[in-house]
Amino acid sequence: AKRLERPEMAQKFFEYIWNGWLCLASPVLSNTGTDRGLPISCFGIDVADSIYDIGSKNL
């Protein structure tokens, strides 16, 4: 929200995370707002851009 220059979104993000409607990766939760690590999480796999292909990967 701060980065987007839309502070009114901060409460909505908090509510979504608090209610379990938005789930962040562990590095994002642990490292955002700190000087350690990066707030990113990587997962390397090739998935085509269709509902069928996403569903058929069995992730």
UniProtKB/TrEMBL annotation:
Pfam families documented for this protein: Ribonuc_red_lgN (PF00317)
GO biological process annotation, one example: deoxyribonucleotide biosynthetic process
Record domain Ribonucleotide reductase large subunit N-terminal: where: 5-37
Protein name, entry field: Ribonucleotide reductase large subunit N-terminal domain-containing protein
Sample GO molecular function, one term: ATP binding
InterPro entries: RNR_lsu_N
Organism from which the protein derives: marine sediment metagenome
